[in-house]
Structure formats: structure tokens, C-alpha cells
Write a structure and sequence with these properties.
Strand content: 25-35%
Number of helices: 6
Order of helices and strands: HEEEEEEEHEEEEEEHHHH
Strand order of the largest sheet: 1-5-4-3-2-6-7-8-9-12-13
Shape: globular
Largest sheet: 11 strands, antiparallel
Radius of gyration: 21 Å
Structural class: alpha+beta
Length: about 240
């Protein structure tokens, strides 16, 4: 058995939306044969995911994926094992991590089961599945994967990257367009807190209200252009001001 991530998996059903029915049947049979050769028929059914089918109608203005509409090399912790140098894409609209197949079947994409995916890295950004790492999460932790950013030791910022969609008509055709709707949470002293607005941040650090207001005044542009980086810098600034009391 090979030591690649794909070498462990087999699909109970492969559905491809390509070409004619004849071409579809040929591709399904070839793919099944390839997976049988990779891992053996005795391992069929151990994978809980399925084929990822891109049904989006894109016009290159926007896309539903994290960072770029391309596969990128990264790593993933799947079923308690870490797999390096795999090609990944993160669909932030469906909240699905996608794995690209190998070799002659690189056009195929696999939706990895979130029940077995505990962490992954893509574009040098680290994501975790909080539901697999923590018990009794608060209700506002309602996404699957969160980017993990260290503020200071024992204080962690978690960003849920999500894109909402709407239809757009252009030149008589219907397209899907996407806009960013990220949410943020702070893990401090073992507790999660929402930090999506200045009010929530002041509520969490009431004695730092003046510091927070001053920071917002000085960095208004960044708060709009790069809210995650702004939030990261603000939280570090608050921590620094607390230690300088």
C-alpha cells in the first residue's frame, strides 16, 4: 500500500457530471479500477466523504474558495494521521475541505469528511476543527473549520472564513457571486468569547475602553480593508497595555 493520503480511501459511489452518458460510464469504471489498484477492494467503504462536484456558475469576478480558486500544497490531519504535500482547496461557502486526486485522475476532487479532519494548513494558514478539539462549545462557535492565530501565549484568535452567495444576471446569464462574511472568537483562560465588534471587545476588556477607542481612531482604514489583521493587532495591543499598567 502506498503512503499517500489517497492510498487509504475508496468511494462507495462516484458521480461525474462530464460529457455524455457513455463518457461518464468510462470515467467511473476507470476511476474505480484505479482506486481498487491503490488500496484493494477489501478496504472499500472506509472513506466517509465523496466526490466534490463544482456546481458554481462563476464569471471570474468572485469565487467561494479560501484565498484563491486553485489547489495549493498543504497538509491535513485526517483520521488521527498527518499527511503532508497534498493538494487542497477550501470551499468556504459549503465549509468543505477538498483534496485533489493524483496522476491521471487529478481532475477528480474529494470532499474530506469533517468528522475525521481535525486540522489542515493551506497558503501557510493553519485551520482547526474546534468541534473535534473542544467539548461544550458555545453556540456562536457554529462553523466547522477555524483559522487559528496566536495572539500571545494562552490567548488564541479563531477566524471562521465564510462566503455568502447571491445570484447575479450579466449579459443574459445567471452567475453566482460571493462576499466575505467572516466571524471571530477569542479563546482566553479556557473560555471562548465573540469579538466581532468594538462593543464585544470593550465588553471583554472594560478597563481598556479608552485604549480600544484610540486604536480604532488611529486604524480606521485597516479596520475596513483588513479586519482580521486589524483585530489581531488590536488584541495584541490590548494585552501589551494590560501588562504595562
Amino acid at each position: 500500500m502506498t503512503h499517500t493520503l489517497l492510498g487509504k480511501f475508496i468511494f462507495p459511489l462516484l458521480v461525474f457530471q462530464i460529457g455524455t452518458a457513455k463518457a461518464q460510464s468510462v470515467d467511473e469504471n476507470a476511476a474505480l479500477l484505479w482506486f481498487d489498484q491503490k488500496i484493494g477492494k477489501e478496504n472499500a467503504g472506509v472513506f466517509n466523504g465523496g466526490v466534490y462536484i463544482n456546481t458554481y456558475r462563476l464569471n471570474n469576478d468572485t469565487h467561494p474558495y479560501f484565498h484563491e480558486n486553485n489547489f495549493s500544497q498543504g497538509w491535513v490531519e485526517y483520521d488521527a494521521q498527518r499527511w503532508s504535500a497534498v493538494q487542497l482547496k477550501y470551499d468556504t461557502h459549503r465549509n468543505e475541505l477538498i483534496l485533489q486526486s493524483e496522476g491521471n485522475y487529478s481532475y477528480m476532487a474529494i470532499s474530506l469528511s469533517s468528522e475525521k479532519t481535525s486540522a489542515f494548513s493551506i497558503y501557510d494558514r493553519n485551520f482547526v476543527n474546534l468541534k473535534l478539539r473542544h467539548n461544550n462549545l458555545p453556540e456562536f462557535i457554529n462553523s466547522v473549520y477555524y483559522e487559528e492565530v496566536s495572539i500571545v501565549p494562552n490567548v488564541m484568535l479563531y477566524a471562521s472564513h465564510h462566503k455568502s452567495s447571491r445570484e447575479k444576471i450579466q449579459d443574459g446569464r445567471v452567475y453566482d457571486t460571493f462576499s466575505v462574511k467572516n466571524t471571530y472568537a477569542l479563546l482566553k483562560n479556557g473560555e471562548f468569547y465573540p469579538v466581532n465588534s468594538k462593543r464585544e471587545i470593550v465588553h471583554l476588556f472594560p478597563d481598556r475602553k479608552r485604549v480600544i477607542n484610540d486604536f480604532y481612531q488611529l486604524h480606521r482604514k485597516k479596520a475596513k480593508s483588513n479586519p482580521q489583521e486589524f483585530l489581531f493587532e488590536l488584541l495584541r495591543f490590548i494585552h501589551k497595555s494590560e501588562n504595562n499598567i
